[in-house]
Recover the amino acids of this structure.
């Protein structure tokens, strides 16, 4: 069992010229000042059910001023023989947006297209085309919630040991940058 308490503070005060966007080669930034307190309590237990079967359970409660959540975990480990073990687990996760993601200042400036973005737009990789970007925070961001499922096997045969695992992660309200590109399982780009 355990617990923790922490205070987060974000203070960013760029100089006046930067706030006005008058610094050549830099981005325009606004000032920001935000803070919050948070705490968490958690516990974990491992219970031998049989000589070769173990059940594990965990629970964590996170509290922030904008959101709170209890996240469970349950897992099982089975050793039918000494050289072979099977494991499975289910876990829930929770992550609140950072202060920068919630209250960070508006920023704007120039950037260049990445190799992938060049190809997506029909240009050659490394086209280096510049573009103007505007970014910033979103005070309406929701906490990210996730579920992870996993199953696997472990073997240890003298000098040979190996493990095989399959897992699936499901995220809701994923906190990410609007320009981020990620790949699905087939390797295709998606926005």
């Amino acid at each position: 069992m355990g617990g923790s308490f922490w205070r987060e503070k974000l203070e960013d005060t760029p100089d006046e010229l930067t706030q006005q966007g008058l610094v050549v080669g830099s981005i325009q930034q606004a000032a920001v000042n935000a803070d919050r307190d948070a705490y968490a309590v958690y516990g974990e237990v491992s219970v031998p059910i049989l000589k070769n079967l173990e059940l594990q359970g965990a629970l964590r409660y996170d509290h922030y001023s904008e959101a709170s959540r209890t996240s469970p975990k349950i897992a099982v480990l089975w050793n039918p023989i000494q050289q072979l073990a099977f494991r499975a687990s289910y876990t829930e996760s929770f992550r609140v947006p950072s202060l920068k993601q919630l209250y960070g200042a508006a920023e704007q400036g120039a950037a260049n297209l990445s190799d992938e973005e060049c190809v997506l737009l029909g240009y050659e990789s490394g086209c280096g085309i510049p573009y103007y970007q505007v970014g910033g925070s979103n005070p309406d961001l929701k906490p990210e919630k996730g579920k992870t499922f996993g199953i696997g096997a472990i073997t240890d045969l003298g000098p040979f040991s190996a493990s095989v695992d399959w897992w699936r992660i499901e995220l809701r309200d994923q906190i990410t940058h609007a320009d981020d590109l990620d790949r699905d399982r087939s390797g295709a780009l998606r926005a």
